[in-house]
Structure formats: C-alpha cells, structure tokens
Amino acid sequence: LCYCFALDNTVYNTGRSWACSRHGLPLLGLLTTWPAAPGPAHVMAALPESALVIAALPQPAHKMAAISKPVHKMAAIPKATAPLVPSQVTAVFPESSQVTGIPHESSQVTAVLHESSQVTAVLHESSQVTAVLHESSQVTAVSHESSQVTAVLHESSQVTAVLHESSQVTAVSHESSQVTAVLHESSQVTAVSHESSHSSQVTAVLHESSQVTAVLHESSQVTAVLHESSQVTAVSHESSQVTAVLHESSQVTAVSHESSQVTAVLHESSQVTAVSHESSHSSQVTAVLHESSQVTAVLHESSQVTAVLHESSQVTAVSHESSQVTAVPHESSQVTAVLHESSQVTGVPHESSQVTAVLHESSQVTAVLHESSQVTAVLHESSQVTAVLHESSQVTAVSHESSQVTGVPHESSQVTAVLHESSQVTAVPHESSQVTAVPHESSQVTAVSHESSQVTGVLHESSQVTAVLHESSQVTAVSHESSQVTAVLHESSQVTAVLHESSQVTAVLHESSQVTAVLHESSQVTAVSHESSQVTGVPHESSQVTAVLHESSQVTAVPHESSQVTAVPHESSQVTAVSHESSQVTGVLHESSQVTAVLHESSQVTAVSHESSQVTAVLHESSQVTAVLHESSQVTGVPHESSQVTAVLHESSQVTAVSHESSQVTAVLHESSQVTAVLHESSQVTAVLHESSQVTARDVTITGLTINHDKIPH
C-alpha cells in the first residue's frame, strides 16, 4: 500500500495496491519499503517491514502524518511541529509500545465517541484493536501483538473498528489478535478476529441506519473480518466501502481467515455476509441481514455461529428480501440462522411470527429474526434451546440436556426470550458455548457472553441494546411494546432482561444465579435474587440486582464485592451498570439511545449514557470496565478473559469514563491491558496508563509521534 504525500502532488507506489482517498482524506497502509532518499531516509529504512503508517486529519494530508514503530527506534524520528487539531484522533501503536495517548504493557485499546454517536472499545490481553473517531473526521490506528489492522475513516465520520454517521458501535477483542475495520457513509459495522483457527467466529451485521456489532471470545472471534497473522483492512470511499464488503448505503463486512477467506455480498438495501474459516476445522460463518435491520452474533469456545456454522463444516444462513430459512445443527455444534423480510425461523418460519430453536449437547446457536418480531434465546451448561414468539405474544421454550420445558428454566441452564412487534431482545450465554442474534425492524437487543465465549450483536433502526452476562450464567432480555417483565434464574445461570418502548431496565447477575428487574413506562420494579432463592425488591449478601428507571431520569446501581448489578434507562437516555466478582450483565436500551455493556470472566463493567450528559461508575474487586456513550447514544464495551474494558478499567480498581455533549473524560489503566479513549464534539481527553497503575488525562491533546511532512522522503 502506498501513502499519498501532498508536498508536490506525487504519490509513492510501493508496487503493492494503492489508492488515494479524495477530499484530502489520508491513506492508511503498510509500508513495505521506503525509497532511498537523503535526510531521514536512513531512519525510515530501519522501520520494520510491517511498520504501520497512519495519518488522520480532517484537513489536507500534508498537514500531518503519524508513524508507529518500535519504541527504541522512535527517538530517531523527527517530530512534527504542527500540533494535532482538537477533536482528533488517535492512533495506537505496536506490540509493546503504545498508542498515541495510550500506552500499555502489552496491548492497548482506544475507544472514542463523538457528538452524534459512536463508541468503540476493544482490547485484548496481548493485542488490541482500536477505534476512534469524531464528528467529522477521524483516524484510528490499531496494532496488536502479531497482526494489525488498520481501519479507516469516512468522509463524515468513522471509527476504526466501526462507526457511522448517525450511530454505530463496535466492540471486539481477542486473546492474541484482532482487527476491526468497517464503516459506511451512513452506517457500518465492524468486526473482529480470533486467535488462529480453533474456535473462531465471525459476526457481521449492519442496518440501513445503524448497526452494532460486538463480538468477542476467549480464544477467538471475528466480526466482519480478520485473522491471526494477516489482516484485513477495511476502507471506505467517498460513499462507503469496506474491504471485503460494501454496499451503497450500508455494508457488511466479510470475513477472512487464516488460510482462506470469503467475501460477503450484499445489495443496495440489504446484504449478507460471508465468512470462511481455516478450512474445515472449527469454522463458522454467520451471515444475516434484513432490509431494514440485521443482527448477527455468534461465538463459542469451540464453535458457534449465528446465522450459521458448525464444528467441521458449516452452513450458512442468509436471508433475502422475501424469505429464507436455514437451520442446521451438528453433534458438536449447531447453527441456526434465520431471518427474512417478513419471517423465518430456524427450523420453522412463519409469515408474521417465527420460532427458532436449536441446541446441542456441547454448544448451541440460535438465531431468528422477523420483520416485526424476533426472539432468540439459548443457553445451557451443555445445551439448550429456546426461542419462540409471534407477532403480538410470545412463548419461551427452554430445553436442558435431555429434556425440555417451556416457560421453565433448568437446574443447569435457563433461557427466556420474549419480544414483541416493535422491539426484541435476545440473550444467550453459556459456559462453553452460546449464541445470540436478533434484530427487528424498529429495534433489537441482543446480549450474550460467558467465560469462554461471548457474542453480542444487536442493531436497530434507531436504537439497540446489548446485554451481557457472566462466567457461568447468563442473562436474557425481553422487551414488549409498552412494558415487559421477565425474570428467570437458575442455580448456575440465569437470564433476565426487560425492556419497554420508552424505558427499559435490565439487571442481572449473581455469583451463581440471578434475577432480573422489571419496570414499566413511568414506574418500575426491581427484582433481586440471591444464591438459592429470590426476592423482589431485595438484594442478597452475595449478589444483588437493582434496577430502576423512570420516564425522564435514570439511576445507576452500585455493585457489590462479589456480585451486583444495575441497570437503568429512561425515555431519552439509558444507563446500564453491572459488575460482579465472577459475572455481570448489564443491558439496557431506550427509544432514542442505547447502551451496550460487556464484561469479562472475572468482572466487568458498565456503560451509561443519557441525552445530554452521562455518568458511569462501576468497579469490581478484580477489574472493571466502564463504557461511555454520547449525546445520541451508543456504547459498546467488551472485555477479555484477562483484560478488558471498554472505556476503562484497571487491575484492581477502576476508573470510569464518561462523556457528554460538550466534554469528556476517560481514564483507565490496567496491569496487562487498558483502554481509554473518549472525546466529544469540541474536546477530548485521553487517558494514559502504565504497567502497574496510574491514570492520566489530557484535554484536547494527543500524544504520539508525528513526523514533519517536510522530513518525509517523497
């Protein structure tokens, strides 16, 4: 790839593919070699073959350039005299050095969001990804231990990893590598990568107006695209584009994997995404989308797929404008994917309603969506299935290892899923596998995550929400046109989620079991469960859950040493907070804004946002994560087994990040990984962190290497 330098209007072509973006937008690429030239040429020649070059600026490319390289070589590079412009972005750099604005012992992640909405948080034990961007322009760089991906920017706004003119969220993280890159003029979604070939996932989703894609897993995941050693780079062009995939108004990002890849396909209004896996072993593919909205979420320790996939071979589900259904289960893994403009069902489709149910001894996957309603919920220690509902009412099915029960949870696992014409919710987690995927014409919600694997994918025309769950149990969501309540819990796992047209609340978590909250348009109710029993309106010594919310305000709960939960949204804003020693879940969304929260094996955290301001505060004994979102709404947080965080977190204590319409602050740090990034329309602050602890914030300032344009050989 080449980089365009504007000094004398020349373009240097390394011999690889190249292209210049228009309107002064910079090129992102990997320089394989530097031309021989006087001056700093000898320094450039020392750059590693995979040196990442990134330039981001809402103005002529010649104004700024940033190059990341090994720390020991950085000193040799002259610094640019021209400072970065406020509201600008950030780049993240290599294996052990750092990122502009944020360094980390082994990895970094940077997340940011802007006035209209975007937030992207990703990070991983040894590598990370990044994503950032602001209202009109941005750039983002990302690097991880072994591979890299660089993502991209769009005429209006982009976020490495993901971002959209009006809203998007993308979250991705992976143990050893990941990537993220996707964007589109109006909306995009981005994805992720997994460890190598074993247990990998891919998830791709996008919607005409907004998208959200979140995926992560202990050993691998993929969203949209990327693989262990190589990478994929997404790029958008004036209108929209994505390497691997692109669409006139929306895109889906394809996926590629270690040895082969696949490219997704899509058409003007809808698309589909394809994915390839290493060859046959443990591969997944997930492809789903709908004319107005799609959601696809999949991942599992050994395999999963939403939309499609199974242990050795795969199946792929795709929906087209009229109808479709694809469902296939496998001894080791299952995949069920269905969706279509008017109806589908894995296993069974129906014009106005559908049902989907799939499960397998080891893993499950369930995916369903329908123009007016969908629901998909599945999880169980070893297997389960759940999924039922129709246009106006629903039913929930649950199965356990050998038998099944409808409307009943099982000792080991439970599943509860409900949703109605205007909204949906889907949540499914499992100790060793899970899946979740549900979209709806107007809104969706999806939540899933567990110790070894997670998946969360949701998107809605105007709002979404993503729920999360903890190590051994899960949580599930439910929404109803005017109000809803759903409460379920199990000794080992639980699922609980509730949401309402104007307000929602979802609270769940407990060391071994949980319960859920409930609420309605103006008042609410809160549910709480403790280790073996439950109580409404009562918390327990070991775990608690408290959820409250009302039409115009919110409340955030507090967490407890070993468990807790909190989630509150209101008509115009949401808040979600949850964390607990071993598990957490927090998922909430609102008519106009959403929030996504995710957490990791031992703890996690929460996200909160509201119309004009935000606050999010949560911390856990071991670690926390705090996500932030902006004026309009979006937040995505995803953490990983040993590190995580979205927006923030550190080894023992945490920091919380928050951003509102006019300012932001984000502070984070962690022993092995960190992520911190926030910024808003006019100012930003970048947090910093180091090996053991500290936090540091800078306002409107971005630290990092910049190279004076004049010093760069042509």
Brief account:
With 714 residues, this protein is mostly beta strands. Helix content is 1%, strand content 20%. It is globular.
Per DSSP E runs of 2 or more residues, the count of β-strands stands at: 49
Coarse shape? globular
Main β-sheet, in a few words?
Answer: 6 strands, mixed
Which regions are unreliable across 5 or more consecutive residues at pLDDT < 50? 1-714
Radius of gyration: 22 Å
What attributes does this structure have?
49 strands; disordered C terminus; 6-stranded mixed sheet; about 20% strand; single chain; about 0% helix; mainly beta; disordered N terminus; about 725 residues; 5-stranded mixed sheet
Structure in words:
By secondary structure, the chain is mainly β. The strands form 18 sheets. A six-stranded mixed sheet has the order 20-23-25-27-42-41, with no helix packed on it. The protein has a five-stranded mixed sheet with strand order 37-38-39-43-44, with no helix packed on it. A hairpin with a 4-residue loop joins strand 41 (588-589) and strand 42. The longest helix has 5 residues, at 41-45. It is globular. The two termini are 15 Å apart.
Secondary-structure blueprint of this entry?
Layout: E1 29-30, H1 41-45, E2 52-54, E3 66-68, H2 71-74, E4 98-99, E5 102-103, E6 119-121, E7 168-173, E8 211-217, E9 255-256, E10 261-262, E11 265-266, E12 271-272, E13 283-284, E14 298-300, E15 309-310, E16 326-329, E17 334-337, E18 347-348, E19 355-356, E20 375-377, E21 397-399, E22 404-406, E23 425-427, E24 433-435, E25 443-447, E26 453-456, E27 463-467, E28 479-480, E29 484-485, E30 498-500, E31 504-505, E32 507-508, E33 518-519, E34 524-525, E35 527-529, E36 534-536, E37 546-547, E38 565-569, E39 574-578, E40 585-586, E41 588-589, E42 594-596, E43 606-609, E44 626-628, E45 658-659, E46 664-665, E47 678-679, E48 684-688, E49 696-699
Parallel strand pairs: 6-7, 7-8, 20-23, 23-25, 25-27, 27-42, 28-30, 37-38, 43-44
Antiparallel strand pairs: 1-2, 2-3, 4-5, 8-26, 9-10, 11-12, 13-15, 14-24, 16-17, 18-19, 21-22, 29-33, 30-31, 32-40, 33-34, 35-36, 38-39, 39-43, 41-42, 45-46, 47-48, 48-49
